[in-house]
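Board notes (copied after class):
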Amino acid sequence: MPRILVCSDSHGRADLLALAYDQQPKAEALVFLGDGLSDTGIFSSSGKTHYLVRGNCDAGAQIPATQGFLFGGKNIMCTHGHRYYVKHSLDELLRHAKQHAFDLVLYGHTHVPRVDYIDGIYFFNPGSLWQDKSYGFVDVSPAGIVCQNLRARVY
């Protein structure tokens, strides 16, 4: 079953991003949702497909704020979320997702792990690696989408 490692908001903790990467060896794709782009060297050097978006703390980064990709037959959107006001509601994000026929929306910014299913679209926030060592993964199969939040285990 194809798996995506999803991380966000590392804020200088490249060690925690590397730890999450090490703890999900089955991940075929890697997603970082902003606020710590300088921490993503492990993703770039992994040889795996990876998607990066910039957050509100990634000033000057030449990375898109939002991007979409196909994975396992699903249309997936990545964004940090600040431009969609996700700290207040998912309404703007839902509107955008419906307009572009996304099956799954990955977002960060709030530092709060969350999984929602609204109007046939999954919304997944992996939380913050920096704040509480939170990250997640998404499994995609013909049967559907499964989103799981985890905490990095520090040994």
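Comment from the instructor: The helical segments are 14-22, 41-44, 91-99, 129-132. The two ends are 28 Å apart (CA to CA).
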